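Handout, section 3.2

Students often ask what a structure token actually looks like in practice. Rather than define it abstractly, here is a full record for DUF1129 family protein. The first block is the sequence as you would receive it.
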Amino acid sequence: MIAKDYIQLNNERRKKLNKENESLYLDMVVYIRTNANKSEQQTEEVLLELLDHLLKAQANGKTAKDVFGEDLKAYCDELIQEIPAEKTSNHVRFILFMILNLFAIITLFTGIGGYLLHLLFDIGSGSLTFPIGSGISIVILDLLLLTIWIIILLKWIKSSTFKEKKPNKWIEFLQLWLICTVYIGLSLAVLFLMPDFGTTVNLYYPVIIGLGLVLLVATILFNHKYRMTK
């Protein structure tokens, strides 16, 4: 089985936990999974093993703290240290998958949006003109911002675990809204403040849409082969 199979099996077996054990176990799952540098396969195997131990203990009237100790966070930290790092090839696949996704979304959004604005409201010239140097720089900076945003988001999610008192949902929503707003704002700033430089290229919107569809198909095929999301 691969990691995604373990995740599916975990989701099914977790339904057998009572409310208290499920809450504690979910904190452990989130805390351990948010270590992106660790092997996903090994992580999911460990989590399923923990779940099996907990289910057996629950049958005898025990809780997660009875099995793993009062300090669940410290216990998880010990487990995380024992999990090997993710293979470089898997990191490369994930990065390539994210790049394909980003390119497909940007290209389709730009092509369809520009085409409809020109067709319905006669806005624009029916094509997109941009300097290659600026375009490449924007993409690189957007990827950098996306990486930083993902790291911050994972740290924020991890920090929300093992709280004696669950945080207010509205406060969590506002924190998440702020993180996303800053990311979107910086991405737009890069787009609009980047100076023009490099050779200028002119592409008609139907061509851009076609490129976007090619990238979308490539993303779907890549995902189907390596099961990045399923």
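Discussion prompt for tutorial groups: The domain at 3-82 is CATH 1.10.1900 (c-terminal domain of poly(a) binding protein). How would you have guessed this from the sequence alone?
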